[in-house]
Structures are given as C-alpha cells and as structure tokens.
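Feature request, filed as a ticket because there's no other form

It would be nice if the structure record came with a short human-readable summary line next to the tokens. Right now we just get the raw output. Example of a typical job, pasted below so the devs can see what we mean:
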Amino acid sequence: MSIEFEKPTKQRDHIKLLELAVQMITKAVGSDMIGTAFAAEKLFKAATGKDTDTQANRNWVWVTQTLAEATCAVLQHPRLHCVLTEIELTPNITTLIQTVPDRGTIEPVHLNNPSAHPAFAEARNMIAGIARTVSPEHPFDDKVIEQKFFSVLMTAGATVVARHPDYFNGLNLALSSPTQEPQKRELAHARHARFISKGFVSDPIFTTDLDETVSLSEVYLHLRCFWHRRQIDEDGKISITSHVDDLHKTAKDWLLHGEDGLRVIGGGPGSGKSSFARAFAHQILQDNSHRVIFVELQHLTFNADLFQALGTYVQYRNTGVGDGSAGFYENPLSWAADDQTPVLLVFDGLDELSAQDTEARTLTKNFVDSVSSLLSMQRSSGRDIKAMILGRSSACQAALSSSDQGKLLHVAPIKTLADADFKLDVTDHSPDHGPEGRKDITWHVDDPQNLSELDQRPDYWRRWQKAKGLPAEDVPDSVTHEDMAELNVEPLLLHLLLISDFATTRWREAANNRNYVYEDILTKIYDRNATKPPMNKTDLSCDDFFRLMECLSLSAWRGGGRTGDEKNFGKLRKAYRLGPDWRRVIDLPIAHLENIALHIHTRLDSERIGFSFIHKSFGEYLAGRAVFRTALYLVVRLSGDDEPADAAGKWAELFSFAPLTRPILRFLTDEARRFEHPDEMRGTVDALTEVFNHTLRNGFPMDVMSTPDVRYRDLEDRQRNAESTLVSTLSVLAQAIPLPKGQTRITNAQRVVPDWGRPHFAASLFERIQPRGRLGTPLSCARFDFSDAAMLGMIFRDIAFDGCTFEGAFLFRTFIFQCSFKDSSFRNSQIAGSFLAGGGYSKADFEEANLNMADLLTAQGLTEVQLSKAQGNQGTKLPLYIDASKIPWADKED
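Raw output as currently delivered:
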C-alpha cells in the first residue's frame, strides 16, 4: 500500500518554510545547537501550512523535514568546518530543499528507509558539492559524503516522526498497519539493512577517543583472499594451486554466479573477517540485489534445528525502536513463499559458538552441516538463497570435510604475500614431509593481477591520516618493518599499533611483543576516563583499573565470551583479591559489571544480562595478564604464611571454570617475556612448582570449584582446567628464565623440575589433562624435566615439549602426534616401538636413545646427524627425506 504526499496550497507558507529550512541548516553548520533546535521547531510550524492540513500535506512535511534533518547531520560533521557565511550558504541550500517534488507517493519501505525514495536522489547528487562549498579542504571523498547522507536519511526520517508523533500518526498507521503484512515485512528488512549499514558507514571505529567519528568505511581496505585447488596425477603426485584475487570480487562472483550455496571465509584473529562481513553485506544492500540477514553467532543458541534457532535469534534481537534492528519480528526465512528476492545469510563468528575446543570442533562442524541442510531445504522450494560463514581459520578448516575445502576462502595478510603465506593453511602429513617441506607436492600460485606483490599497509596508514584530518606524512617504519610482523600484518593489530604510542619513534620497544601495544591502549582508555564522571569521583589508580578489567576478562573467559550477570561477576570480583587494598576497589560504584563494561568496547549479550568484548583479543590479553598477575601474587604469598594448599585453592577458584585457550596462552607467554625482573624468574618458578607438587598428590580443593548445580563430570573438567592452566603457566615462566651468557643448551637451571614422587606420576598427569591424547585445551610443557618418567603407551597430541629433558624416560610404544620437541633431550631414553608423527624435532638430542622398531616416517625436523647418535635397527622406519645409508644402524637386523 502506498500513500500520497502533496505540498500545502498556500505559497506564502512555502516561502517561509524555505527561509527557515535554510536558517536551520546554516545554524547547524555554525555549531549553534540551541539555534538549530529553535529553527527546527519554527520549520515544522511553517511547513504544516495554515489553510490546508490534509494527510497528504503532512506526508509532504515529513519528506521535507527528513531532507533538512539529514542535510544538517552531514554538514555538522566535526571535520567539516564551514568557511561561508549564512548569506553565502543560502543559494546552495535553497536549491537543495527545492528538489523535493510537489507531489508523489510514499511506499511502506520509505518510512524506515527514506534513502530508497526517489525524492532524495537529486539531493544525493548535490550534497557532495555543498559539502565542498562549506569546507573546501574537507577530508572526505564525494562517495563517502553521499554514503553518509543516505545513511543519516534513515535516522532523519525516524527523528522527524519521533519529534512530532501525534502529527505524523496517520503516516505511521497507513504504512505499518498489521493488515499490510507485505509492507510490514519490507519495513523489517529495511530496519535490518539499516543495522548492517550503520555498522559500516556510521558507527565509529575503535579508538581510545570517546569523541571518535571515523567510521569503518573511511579506512576500510579491500582485502585479498586465496583458495586452494588440489590435483593428484596418475602417479599419485600432488599439485596444489593457490588462486589469489580480491575478496569482494571473489565473494560477489560466487554470490551472483556460483552454483553452490555456501562459502566459508577463514582468517586469523584481527585479519579483517568481521569488517569484511559488514562491508560486503553493505555493498550487496547498496546494489539492491539481495536481502541480507546478518547473524552474529555469539548471540545464537545453536541446536539441531537451525531454522528454529534462527527464528529464536531474530525475534530476540528484534527492536521496534532506535536506529535499525539486529533482528526481525519473526523468522524472515518463513516468508519464502511470498518473497522471491534472493537472500544472503551472513553468519559471523564461527569460532564463537563454543569456548571449549573439544566441543567447538564438533559444534562448528555440526553448524556448517546444518547451514548446508537449511540451504538445501530452502533451495529445493525454489528460493534463491546462499550463505556465508566467517570464523578463525582453525574453526573453519575443522568444520569442512576434505571434499568441501574448496569452499573455503582464506583472508590474506595485508603485507606482500610470500609462498609461505599460502602453505600455512595446508596441512597434509606425509612420509616425505621433512624440514624442507613436502617433496611430493608441487606448488603453484595463480595470480594474474599480481595482487600478491601488493603491500596494503601504507594504504591503511594514508587512509587513517586522511580520516583523522592529519597531514600526509611519510609512512612510519613500524607500519612495514619485518621486525613488527607480530603487529603489522593484520588490519586490527595494525590499527591498534597506529593508535598507540608505538607507531613512530618507540616502535622497536613493541617489536615481537604486542602486549606493549594493548597495555598502552588500555592505559589511554584509563587516562581519558580518569577526569570524567564517575571515575573522577574515585581514587581509582591505573593499576586498579587494569585489575577490574582483568576481572571482566576472567568473567568473559568463564562464560565462553560472555560475562554473565552482576551476581556471578560479584563473586569473581571478590575472589580476585590480589592485594591488600582490593576491598577498597571493589566497594567503589565503578567496580560494578555495567560500569566496568562501559569503559571498554563491549556489547550487551543476547540475554541482556551480561557483556562481551567487541574485540575478543582485548579480553584474551587481559585474561593472560590476569593469569600472570595471579602467579606472581601467589609466589609472594608463599614467601609469607601461605602454604601450597592455600595457593592451590586460590588457583582453582580463579582458573578451574574454563579451559585455557591458545590466544590467552600466547598473551600469557608475551606477558612473561616482558617481565621487568627476569633474574627473579627462577625463584618464581621454584615457588610455583611447590604448588604443582602439592596438586600432583592431592589435586585441587573441590569446595572452591563447586556450585549448586555441579555434577561430578563438571568437577572433573574443572580439575583438568585448573591443572592444565597451572602446567602451561609454569612452562611459560620457565621459558622466561634467561640463559647465561655463552650457554647454548637448556639445562635444569632453566626448567621446571617437579618432584614426581613415582615414575608413573607424569603419565598420570597427562591422563588427567589430555586423556588418551584427546584434542582439547592447548598445552605447553616446554622446559619440564621428565627424566626417568614411565610413560609407556601414552598418547600425546599437539603439546609443546620444547627444551624438555626425557633422559632415561620410558616412552615405549608411545604415540606422539604433532608435538614440538625443539632443543629437547632424549638421551638414553626408550622410544622403541613408538610412533612419531609430524611435529618438530629440530636440535633434539637422541644420543643413545633406543629407536628400535620406532615409526619415524612422518616425523619432521630430523637429521642424519641426530639419528646417527641413536640406536635403532631395520625395523625402524625412517623419514623418506633421511638418507638411510648415512645411519650406521639402519641395516641392523631386528
């Protein structure tokens, strides 16, 4: 149903309207907020007309005021500094207002999406010219100005109605009546489209500035992608071709012309996946070719019926007020019979479905399978629907079967691409996989546009400088230097670097340790809030602020990314009492969950009872920092009256409720590496080892891990979480012990040396924290002493054993998959009959190690020199990259 609009009949009212519209806009440009508000009220009164006041007249008033409101919003942008007087502006603005036609029609979609109305098309073409007239040196491209104008039109239309709801009630009723179901659906799609576009065009990008206005669209880089095609010839030789192209182009070609309905986009943390999801969804909406349904998976409660789960999600996320809606009033996929417009489903955050690694592998695969089934069901009924799933590479690869890996697009780093960048995402263990890489695989790169040679980092620097209105300076060394590869090859980390103090002269301080940058950014957030309410009314120090933020991160870690409610957060906050003055801090009003969350970029979760970090890496950094702080605190307490049992209780109270994750372990490692007193780390490791020795024999106290609804299986998991986190923390601390000058081999002076008590206690430890080699919590056992340990028939999978000693250990018939043993010692150990697959054995010492009947076929990093010092026989299977003629015992009979 459409309705008409028409100018009021009295001309003198129209002249007044034009004068007041010009007055309102010019006052807005001059930043006269009070004058603007008065002018808007006068404009409304003039626009209503005195003699004719039909519904069509009121509809015309809505169109006119929406245009005026949107123009004000654009010209009021902080970086558009007007250089013209009100008189000089008048002719330009008068022409703009006069573009509104005398009469026309309004469709239901136009109420929440005025930008779709043709009445504003001419104004769109003019707005960039007016912006240049207002501010000749403004930093925006014409296209950006037009996007902002169309974006704010949506807000403007709602603002006009909200300002005078009674006056425009007829307009609302006519276009949103429950009897007009098709129109109601159009409005729902329009509001959802606004939610999507707002995240790309309008919402400010993350910075430490509360008044930030730069949007993602102003700095967004068109990322590159690559995907692999594998072929096997008649002789069994494998050829892999890595195809490189623009990610937007590749995704759009698939969307418009691809036969299959699914694409999975994988990339590392901070690689730009979510930014691409927003940008691409916005692009498709601008093309007006598809409906787009954007699903943030961290808010989706997934079950076997994805259609039902999606319906629950969109209804829970639906909002009837505000600027756009993340959901719908009912499942839009149920409208298929009446709506043949193509649909694109965007599922962002595959890795956020579950915090448990073991559960996540199953859950993510089930989710991808469910999406495929949903697409098949919808497409079988004639619906043109496709889906895009985005997540971290590990989650995406695990979710796809080997036959479906062709559906996976890898987001490329923003640096110049090398062959190694393509091979990182291919895992294929083979007998030929030696230290130089697989010899039976031929690699090709198909890059007809030479996109691999492009370094996009300087472009991001220039975009950021322009968006901030800063002079075009030379690109700092930190942006492209290889020593900063930890921070400058992914868009998010490069952005964090640029807003920190380490982008220019101090960049070498942060080289190879991104924790400096995260700490600097959070310190800036503290500084910006310290002088503002409510923080300025407290004596909260910067360290207090970090401790509260660490509490927030621990709460999110426990909740799989979500903090939970104030009650549970309060219990954790009380438990995190690391220091004598913690009571003073937690009694401050700012220590409440909502107040803390508001001081960093978080969002309310789908149940509206807790928060999650918008940028997960901040929560992961703070959690790693919390583990390190706790370890140091317990060591101090152990030097006083506390016993190992007390420390074990505190550890379990904080770290038993969730498994350690790889990102948190990485941040923990970097935190230990930058410890100010590395010479004290030996004593720290020894003290914490006493806690570990206590838990080896007694476990962790159950009372601090119990909750009212706890099951015995839950307690098992919590014991495992606490113990594996303690083991990894000890390993990290030991790796921070510096080697004395001139020492090249690691000794027990740089290792964790537990009191195993009995030879089988080490095996018992691994049976608890990685039963039968179950993939799960990432584990670091680097620099542990396993001398003489009895670990017969064990299964080790994906564990870091770098720098360990297994001298004299019994590893008979042990299965070892993808473990790292760099610089480890196997002297005089029994490895007979064991299976060593993948992993890395660079510089490992095998002198007098028994390798009889061992299978080393797929072990990586071995050399003839290493193996020559061992003992073996004909039954020992050597890697194909090893020349058996150089191994003295290779032909020795069994």
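Something like this underneath would help us a lot:
The radius of gyration is 31 Å.
Residues 357-380 form the longest helix (24 residues).
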